[in-house]
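User: Study the shape:
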Amino acid sequence: MSRIGFHASHEQFPPGELLELVARAREAGFDGMMCSDHFHPWSRAQGHSGHAWSWLGAAMARTDATFGVVNAPVGRYHPAVIAQAAATLASMFPGRFWMAVGSGEALNECITGEEWPSKDARNRRLLEAVEVMRALWRGETVNHRGAFRVSHAQLFTRPGAPPDVHVAALSPETAAWGAGWADGLITMSQPMETLRPIVEAFRANGGEGKPVILQVKLSYARSEDDALRGAHEQWRTNVLEADLSEDLCTPQAYEALGEQVAPEKVAEAVHVSADPARHVQWLREYASLGFDALYLHNVNRWQREFVEVFGREVLPRLR
């Protein structure tokens, strides 16, 4: 069975509360943790945006779990700085840190005031960033002129083994593109007929034998009404079509479009149920595609209840 992890959403909770939640999740039996890396939340109802890299050091010292972060290493960040941050965590906590990289979202990257690039341009600079980070992790002195510049950069604190770098992909095209250079794939829960081609494209284009990871969006609460209401309140801005949302730069812009999203629309993208057995069934279906790990993101506010109930009633049934 796939490893089952907990997703810590920096957009939804203050970092101190997230620290307590990952400790509780580990005690409840979750195998690993992962977190988002946002400058803005998707909406003011979510209301937070703690700095992921500051938090990761504390969280990894607090528990013995593995940790990953979904990051755009170029844009508002410089790849050399992310390489240094990742090297520090991998050095302090050998074998316990991984990262997933994506081309970024305007919501976070537009804060620099620079023009928002096309998807193709973002992918090109992402691959450049990964190549620069790996060169730094090998101990090379890096000079680079391309989508960004690096001059005479060298890391003097490096881990014994570099962290794995997974490609974050929501389409077969991105999965196929990243399969040759990434150490693995991470994608998000979607209908099986949509998800299967993403996994197959990754495996068919150089990803065979590499780990594949799924982040599962769900909403568990004590009642069906609470589960649906909580998902709609917190996550309706996140179920918009990409062509409507990918260029939006502020939470207020997402909120304006989210006003048009009915609770039933959210339930098409998020697994909403107060029945732990129903969640077990959904997770088993995902595991049947061969995912090495499932990271569960309960998108509503009731995190402690989720951790306790899933630790007691869901994780044992999946194992």
User: Anything to note?
Assistant: The longest strand covers residues 212-219. The two ends are 6 Å apart (CA to CA).
